[in-house]
Write a structure and sequence with these properties.
Length: 465
């Protein structure tokens, strides 16, 4: 029987006893009266103890209650012994199995940490190799960046020299356009290489951070691995086991296994992503260097071609102007002779006009009826009109010839000035082209050329070179 049943049985017995006592007390006045009656009726005086008396059913109920209580206590003792033996066996078995399972869990945990440790150590070694390779690529890019100073200087000097051309030759020709384009290409290459170097520097810093996190994680895993191994070797016979103040407390920094696994995966993924980006960045550095070198080389060839073409065009224009100047000087000489002849003709026409006008004016003084409009008068008037028209035409032609002569002279002066400008421009372009000879790559011959083409220069000792 359990404890609840025992308590209910005791409560039931107590209720029965109390009911019996109440019935007895209710009967006491009657019994007192009977006693008094007995005292008055009988000759022998008897007295009863002034305490409640039990009836026979109450006495039987009390005896039954004591019997039930004894049986209950014996049953409880039997159940207690049986449950205690069962509990001892269960706790012993549970303790042994818990110890066995926890040892297996510790072994699995040690194995898992060792696997993660080896994975992170491999990532750390790979990270060191990638960092060294990235630093080498960054140094090569910086050297390439320094070599761009010469093209910038030569290009700016070429533009400055060509800006010294005179007004008639200060044009936006193809050579000037290609020079400016070469300057833009050089500046863009420089900016591209600077951006790549900056990206490499930032990437190296991020790799340093990742390396620090990996080292910190590896140190934590080494320490945790040592603690788990020590706890795996610990048993109940060891000397350094004691009671602890609060062994079930949860540390503030404790996380769940899922969170720990997520952090490990995140660390691994972070390192792998950075390594993958590092490979792409090294490739981009190499591609940027080669692209900058090839683009600049192609633009330099185009610029040199345009400079040579501009020199050729300037020489051709100079030769054309020299021929034009020579022809114009010949025409000016011829036009001078023609002007002299036309001037003589004009003077003759003026004298003839004076003669005709004098005749016509003088005949106007004829007296009387002799002042008639005869054929002579009509002829003189027609002659005056014709001479004035001839003089007007000759004057116009003389003015036109003089204007033509002045135009030829002005054009000759302009041609002479333009010719001087072209001579100066030709000298400037030739000097700029000679200055750009410094940009021509070194022509390798023989073994050096083969080593550069095969990209094995660093693998051959310098003495063999």
């Amino acid at each position: 029987m359990d404890e609840n049943q025992i308590l209910e049985e005791e409560a039931r017995n107590s209720i029965l006893i109390e009911n019996n006592q109440q019935e007895t007390e209710c009967c006491l006045p009657e019994k007192s009266a009977q006693c008094q009656a007995t005292i008055y009726d009988e000759s022998v005086v008897t007295y009863e103890k002034p305490l409640p008396h039990l009836s026979l059913p109450d006495w039987d109920a009390r005896l039954y209650g004591l019997q039930v209580t004894a049986d209950t206590r014996r049953a409880d003792a039997f159940d207690l012994r049986h449950s205690a033996r069962q509990l001892r066996n269960e706790t012993r078995i549970k303790t042994e199995w818990d110890s066995y399972h926890n040892n297996n869990r510790l072994r699995a945990r040690v194995y898992e940490i060792e696997q993660w440790k080896s994975t992170l150590q491999a990532l750390l070694n790979r990270l060191d190799r990638e960092m060294n390779a990235l630093k080498e690529e960054k140094a090569s890019t910086e050297r390439e960046l320094e070599q761009l100073n010469l093209p910038l200087l030569v290009c700016s000097e070429s533009l400055s020299n060509r800006d010294g051309r005179r007004s008639s030759e200060l044009t936006y020709d193809l050579a000037d356009t290609e020079l400016k384009k070469e300057l833009c290409v050089t500046e863009s290459n420089k900016k591209l290489l600077i951006d790549r170097c900056q990206s490499a520097w930032e990437k190296i810093n991020r790799l340093e951070v990742v390396k620090f996190k990996l080292q910190l994680d590896l140190n934590d895993k080494n320490e945790a691995l040592q603690i788990d191994k020590d706890m795996l070797n610990l048993d109940k016979d060891c000397a350094n086991i004691t009671y602890k103040t609060d062994p079930l407390k949860t540390p503030k920094r404790m996380i769940t296994y899922e969170q720990w696994l997520e952090k490990c995966e995140a660390t691994k993924k972070m390192a792998e992503d950075e390594l993958q980006d590092t490979l792409h960045l090294r490739e981009s550095l190499f591609v940027a260097r080669e692209r900058a070198r090839n683009t600049l080389r192609a633009q330099t060839d185009v610029t040199n071609y345009m400079m040579r073409r501009r020199i050729y065009d300037t020489q051709r224009a100079r030769n054309e102007l020299q021929w034009q100047k020579m022809k114009m000087e010949e025409n000016m000489d011829k036009l001078t002779a023609e002007l002299k002849i036309m001037g003589e003709q004009f003077a003759d026409k003026v004298n003839a006009l004076k003669v005709a006008e004098t005749r016509l004016e003088t005949r106007g003084y004829r007296p009387g009826i002799e002042l008639a409009s005869d054929e002579a008068d009509l002829g003189l008037k027609e002659e005056v009109h014709n001479l004035k028209e001839s003089i007007r035409q000759l004057q116009e032609k003389l003015d036109c010839a003089k204007a033509t002569y002045n135009a030829l002279e002005a054009a000759s002066i302009k041609i002479a000035l333009d010719l001087n400008d072209k001579e100066h421009s030709l000298e400037t372009d030739i000097r700029a082209l000679e200055m750009r000879a410094a940009l021509e790559p070194k022509r390798l011959q023989g073994l050096e050329r083969n080593l550069v083409l095969a990209r094995i220069t660093d693998e051959v000792p310098k003495m063999e070179m």
